[in-house]
Amino acid sequence: MSLEKFINHAVSDWMKGEGPDSDIVISSRIRLARNENAIPFPLVATEEQLEQVIADVSKVVQNVQQDQSDYSMGSLELLRMDQLKGLEKRVLVEKHLISPHLAEESSPGAVVLSENESISIMLNEEDHIRIQCLFPGFQLERAWEQANSIDDWFEIHLDVAFDEKRGYLTSCPTNVGTGLRASVMMHLPALVMTQQINRMLPAINQLGLVVRGIYGEGSDALGNIFQISNQITLGRSEREIIEDLGNVAKQLIEQERQARHSLLESSRLRLEDRIYRSYGILSNARTIESTEATQRLSDVRLGIDMGLIKGTSGTILNELIVLTQPGFLQQYAGEMLSAEQRDERRAKLIRERLRLDEDKTNEGGGVEK
């Protein structure tokens, strides 16, 4: 399979970057945790009870598929974890469609995916049902509307665990209440370069929000990508949670844009040198490890967004931050690879991806970088 065909097949909608403020906000996500009332939480449930959850959700999905007049979500497909190979599960983790916990879990689990992969419903992870809606750019409201409509049809067809005082009951006490986790994934290279991010992160934490890396809890902020989400789910409405996160995200967008402008005004030569060096390395490297590749891609994406690099797609960071992960590299290669082989393949894939844009640019008359 050619790289272009592989990318077209492998890239989810959220990775295409077609959304509001997508020069800074890579994606917006809403996740809702729900449980069936009569079945114990997954941690203590029997395999038979977990199979019942999968069967119940499968029936709900079939009902929704038969009546798309109310729920325009496209086709939905249920994938059982025990029917997927280890590499296939790893790819789903790298695309942010399932959690590492679900991929590693040996008890019955599954995921329901929409055709464009904007909807992902994990079954028997930490909770019976985890509804996730993922959209490109700054679209928290749209993601919430989609997640809320999915939640509605689960409540119509299932007896969901709910307490009048405590709200939705979840396996982890920190999710009790709304069961809502809202998050935005943001590319903030200028705030990192100017070190403004160091004073902003403590302030964000004081507002009841948490800042993590690209793969959530326990992950590093590789490539200057930060995931900002709410910590509090109890005692606040869904609207309040989303509005608070949205307001902080808007401030970060403004601060990042100001920092980019300041860098251009005060340190243009050094900024250009850094960006073009990274572009040159990515265009020519024969081997590159993951951390360096991610940082270089962040530099190139910044150059694209600031108009310093032309003729290269702005989605390159979104795509390659995922496509150069171990699972995708091995899927594209069609075989298992050692770490050294992955570094070689990663460099080759990046070179080919950059060349695709260069070829398209040359066909259109050529653009000088």
TrEMBL record:
Enzyme class, top EC level, equals transferase
Domain Phosphagen kinase C-terminal stretches: 24-259
Question: Which species is listed as the source?
Answer: Caldalkalibacillus horti
As annotated in the record, motif RDXXRA motif of the pArg binding pocket involved in allosteric regulation runs over: 342-347
Q: Which GO terms describe its molecular function?
A: protein arginine kinase activity
The EC designation for this entry is: 2.7.14.1
Protein's recorded name? Protein-arginine kinase
Q: Which PROSITE patterns match?
A: PHOSPHAGEN_KINASE, PHOSPHAGEN_KINASE_C
* Keywords tagged on the record: Allosteric enzyme, ATP-binding, Kinase, Nucleotide-binding, Transferase
Q: Which residues bind ATP?
A: 27-31, 96, 130, 181-185, 212-217
What does the similarity note say?
A: Belongs to the ATP:guanido phosphotransferase family.
Q: Which portions of this protein are annotated as coiled-coil regions?
A: none
Biological function: Catalyzes the specific phosphorylation of arginine residues in a large number of proteins. Is part of the bacterial stress response system. Protein arginine phosphorylation has a physiologically important role and is involved in the regulation of many critical cellular processes, such as protein homeostasis, motility, competence, and stringent and stress responses, by regulating gene expression and protein activity.
User: Could you name the domain of life of the organism this protein comes from?
Assistant: Bacteria
Q: How is its activity regulated?
A: Appears to be allosterically activated by the binding of pArg-containing polypeptides to the pArg-binding pocket localized in the C-terminal domain of McsB.
Give the taxonomic lineage as stored in the record.
Bacteria, Bacillati, Bacillota, Bacilli, Bacillales
